[in-house]
Amino acid sequence: MLTRLESYYDSVPRSAARAEDFGPLTLFVREGTGWPYYARPALGHTGAVDVGAVDAVRARQRELGIPEAFEWVAETTPGLRAAVEASGLVVHAHPLMVLTDDADALPSPPRDVTVRMVGSADPALESAVAAPYAAFGAAPAPGAAAQVAARIDAGLTRLAAAFDSSGTALAAGQHQPVGPVTEVVGVGTRPESRRRGLGLAVTAALVEDARAQGVATVFLTASDDSVARLYARLGFRTVGTALIAEPAEQPA
Q1: Comparison of pLDDT for 187 and 35, the residue scoring more
Q2: CATH number for the 114-234 domain, one of 3.40.630.30, 3.90.1800.10, 3.20.20.20, 3.40.50.620?
Q3: Taking the CB of the first residue and of the last residue of the chain, which one, N or C, has fewer CB atoms within 10 A?
């Protein structure tokens, strides 16, 4: 399973980013709008990584004006953490979860909320694209909705959202299929609509869509163990540890 996920991790950014080779590491640089990408182990590399390779990637990220971010799976590339920490980055661990067939019954979303898939020509597309950004106190870049629409048309992204009675998206998320594997990403709920089960309802819709599309492996990364317990209600089970490294927060 982890080998299958490694192939996916290497493939999925390439539809929207260029890959720069740094020996044991690959830096993905987004082309166009959207969340920036990161560096991760080169496909097939499972051994040690020298701190010099990490420093070289960080220098390139600074040159490009993009976040100094690294993502990888602890169990697949255990030698990377020491190098990343020696370079001065802080590592955060998150449960890596894969969907199984033993989902629990889910509560229905609130009566005044409709959860559905959103197409590229849907009038609610911009609202659905904006909802996860609002969850993190941000606004989408100009052209973000058009880029998502193009990815939907190309079969690279599937988008689901929870709407109130006025048609405003309160929560949304995506899954990004590559062959038989897809990852649920970017699930976010507007701050004023949290604690209503909307993120879980959107995730359930994405899972249902992925299964309908014939995807065999559905996975995601939970922010922490408490969120992982929520996803377990959908049938996700932890198979590893996703590690994310970034610079330490600077004091205000």
Answers
A1: 187
A2: 3.40.630.30
A3: C
Phi then psi dihedrals of residue 84, to 5 deg: -65, -45
- Give the residue range(s) of CATH 3.40.630.30 domains in the chain: 2-96+242-247, 114-234
Single out the residue of 226, 230, 127, 219 nearest to residue 172, CA to CA: 127
H/E stretch holding 81:
helix 80-86
Tokens 């097939």, residue located: 44
What value does the CA radius of gyration of the chain take, rounded to a whole number of Å? Answer: 18
pLDDT at res. 102: 66
Distances (CA, A) of 163 to 27, 114, 201: 36, 5, 11
The 10s digit of each residue's pLDDT in 161-211 is 999 999 999 999 999 999 999 999 999 999 999 999 999 999 999 999 999
